[in-house]
């Protein structure tokens, strides 16, 4: 929380303005009861109308000055709070953008969304309240106590007792709510996670009639969140009436003992009324501080959660001074092992192979053998646990990350299409691509007919997450995006699974034309997709079992023969 508050340095001018005008506002509040006492004791009692009018005008001027202070301090505190939260959200987003997939997996997508939205709002609300109350409450309390003592020290003993009771209440309430607020934010994380899963997986849920099951889980988590919030509100519900009751009892006690002192001639009527107002201001200032202390635990929890994100150092850091690769000629894996977490078993174990420019390499293996993990190491989505990956003989850790990724055309296993225009999804791979080039790309990935049918052609609309596209069309958009960049390395991570055999063959024919100038890596489930590769890497349980051509693996590898025989007829094996 402290690290976050330090960010207020950039708002020091506005913070100074808030403090100045809060002093004006508080000073006005403290002066008004004194003038009221003078009007009653010297104006009303003595029947001096002119004195009443003169001091009444002064009171109006002080009230107007206090009103101006209130407006300006509120304006600047709101501006600081909202500006602070805006910059904090930007910093969180920037930090998360620098995270490797490992950090994103560790924190969780739903939690990152909550931290960027709800947690920032909690800190923002506390900051705005703190700017208004943190300065005003102590000044009002100290000033009120001094002025109350100057009017009647003996009556001030009542205030001392009340203040002690209030402090005890603050300690008890803060200790009870701090843990509950932490639970509340965690429950909110879980609720966002379930909501996200329900929205993303709505088709699957409906297909298997599991909507009620998911709703049950959501309702259960929602009830836990509600119960936690109710516990907090029960404490708050007791607090406010308790404080108001305490204030009213103190006012009765002051009137009771004040009446005796007026009767004995030790206190004037105006001073008693002023004393009651100062007592109200003092108690109100303590209520403000109590509210601040109650808001602080939740803001602290949210601040710590935000700070956890901001203080997390990405496992993969771009070296600005790293080597800039002009042309990738080779990729080499040297005894590479990798595990997603330090305490977990490695997913890949002692992987070694090399690929040169002009080679088309297929990667095949059973489900969970580590195929996708292997190709994700090349763009440095993750860093190896042991061994090294070298590009042109240079460890990729020493290569400028932006330079490296600009040379790679990556097609992920899960097709991702952005909402917007059809052409924009391809321009993502190459920004300044001409319309004629776009149509060539669409033709290569067998999407030209589809684009021509759209009313707006290249500028035709693509819905969110490609809802108006089939699975195969989404894959072809992803493949086209990679082809547009004309990279040195093409990585196709099981990118042909949703394509029919004819379309698959036509696209692979286009890809074959790229082999002379590039490195092509194809992760595949279908043997037919990689049969013509110069080199096939067979993975099993995270290890390289065999490397060779299709014919060589058929002769030497029992595992490969099993994969092939399960997919192809006997006469197609060779």
Description:
This protein folds into 3 domains: 310 residues, Up-down Bundle (ABC transporter transmembrane region fold); 174 residues, Rossmann fold, CATH 3.40.50; 69 residues, Rossmann fold. It is of the alpha/beta class. The strands form 3 sheets. Strands 6-9-10-3-11-12 form a 6-stranded mixed beta sheet. A 4-stranded antiparallel beta sheet has the order 2-1-4-5, with no helix packed on it. The protein has a two-stranded antiparallel ribbon with strand order 7-8. Strand 11 and strand 12 form a beta hairpin. Helix content is 63%, strand content 11%. The protein has 20 helices and 12 strands.
Give descriptors for this structure.
Rossmann fold; 574 residues; ABC transporter transmembrane region fold; alpha/beta; 4-stranded antiparallel beta sheet; 3 domains; 6-stranded mixed beta sheet; elongated
Specify the CATH architecture of the largest domain.
Answer: Up-down Bundle
Which structural class is indicated by helix and strand composition? alpha/beta
Q: Any low-confidence stretches, pLDDT <50, length ≥5?
A: 570-574
Task: Classify the beta-strand content into a percent band.
Answer: 5-15%
Number of contiguous helices: 20
Span between N and C termini? 66 Å
How many individual β-strands? 12
Question: For the largest beta sheet, what order do the strands appear in spatially?
Answer: 6-9-10-3-11-12
Query: What would the CATH topology of the largest domain be?
Result: ABC transporter transmembrane region fold
Classified by CATH, the class of the largest domain is Mainly Alpha
Q: What gyration radius follows from the Cα positions, in whole Å?
A: 36 Å
The main sheet comes to: 6 strands, mixed
Number of domains: 3
Calculate the mean pLDDT score and round it.
82
According to CATH, the homologous superfamily of the largest domain is ABC transporter type 1, transmembrane domain
